[in-house]
Design goal:
Number of domains: 1
Number of helices: 2
Number of strands: 0
Strand content: under 5%
Structural class: mainly alpha
Shape: elongated
Order of helices and strands: HH
Distance between the termini: 13 Å
Largest sheet: none
Length: 65
Amino acid sequence: MTQIIVIFITLAAFCFVLILLFSKNQKPWNFMTEDEKKKKKLLLVSGTTVFLAGLITSLMLRKKK
């Protein structure tokens, strides 16, 4: 059961990062203010970190069984 939750969170983080990168309703990078650029970088790094942590956790849960 725990592994299903970890996989779900990992997929949600992956989808979040993909939406941030490829969404059509975004300003181009050149037209963003510095605050918007910082916020977007922070969101991308956070989403990627959660994704990688979920992958590592999922792999570690498989090895225990």
